[in-house]
Amino acid sequence: MKKINFQFSQRNYHSTNAFTIVELLIVTALIGFLASISIPSSLKWVYQINQDSYVNELASFFRLIRRETRRWGGTCSVKLTTISPGNEGKGFSVNCIGLNNTSRNNIMTAIPNIKKTVFQEVSTEFDITPKGQISLNNNQNAFVVIVGGRHNQYTALQRPKCLVIQSPAGTVRTGIYSNMIRYTSNKVGSIFNYSLRENLCVSY
Question: 21-203 maps to which CATH number?
């Protein structure tokens, strides 16, 4: 019987598991491109959340004052606190008479804090009567606040958020202010704006 010899040729397979310099440069450039898109979008989202949160806290704060003044038959004066550019703090101060210490402390604790990326402009100051009614310090029919951003993420003008307290009923509503404002990082954090009007605050 004829023998058949099987011969296997061994090939030297050479595989490389490392990246080349060109591949690393491509990956690095891709990561940088994606970061340049995602980071600004994420920052805008965070700034928007901060503004929404402040408006909601402000609405809850004003409702709390009305509830406590009616509960105890007391009065509260709400005053603006000016906040300079680059700083943060409480945008209002409150002085209450006729409330017990617990209610007074609850109100002081509930005053919302304005972050460095948020600003507010306020039409006037006001008092709350023992019946929970709003008494304004001017001839306007409503207390108006607009809330926007202190940052440079937007190049175009923006419509800020707004909050209105109707006088004398004290009803609170929120919305978007019709007039547009440019957001910049050097805006004053809390300041008066006597030109604000309630009819320009369009409810959601």
Answer: 3.55.40.10
In tens digits, the chain (204 residues) has pLDDT values of: 555 554 544 555 455 566 688 767 776 767 765 555 555 567 788 899 999 999 999 999 999 999 999 999 999 999 999 999 999 999 999 999 999 999 999 999 999 999 999 999 999 999 999 999 999 977 789 999 999 999 988 778 999 999 999 999 999 999 999 999 999 999 999 999 999 999 999 997
Q: For residue 86, give every residue at least 6 positions away whose Cβ sits within 8 Å of its Cβ, in sequence order, or none.
A: 116, 185, 186
Nearest to 170 by CA among 82, 78, 108, 89: 78
CA 123 to chain centroid, in Å, comes to 19
Residue 184 φ/ψ, nearest 5 degrees: -140, 155
